[in-house]
Amino acid sequence: MSKFGTIIKKQTKNEDNVSLKEYTEMASKYFMGIEMDFSAEEQAILNEAYADINAKSNRAKDEVKSKYNGNNPMAYAFCQIMNRRASVGFSTNAHTCAKVPVYAVGTTTPILDNTEIFGVIKSFIEK
For the whole model, what pTM was predicted? Predict the structure, then answer.
C-alpha cells in the first residue's frame, strides 16, 4: 500500500485535480495489474476515500490522516478492496521486517526464505 501511495504522490503532484477515474486507472496499472469492475460496496469505499483525499480544512485533514493511519486514502481504499476480494484480513496496517518463524516437519526440512514458501506449496498442489 505504501508503494502505491508513493506512486500516487508522484503521479498526481496536486491531488485536488485528480478524478476518481484517474485514481482507478492508476490502481489498475500500478497496483492491481488488471482493470476491475467494482461492486456497489467497493464503489462506496472509493467514493469515501475520494471525498477524504479532497478534505479542505485543517481539522478534516487531521481526521483523514488519523482515519487512514497516515496513508494515502485512495491507496488505502484500493488495498482494502483487494484484501476483501482475497479474503485476507490484517489486524494492523503496518508491519516490521522482523523474521517470523514458519515450521514444517517432513522427510526433509530445508530452510527457506518466506517468499519461497508459495512456490513450494504451488508445486505440491500442481502435482
Answer: 0.61
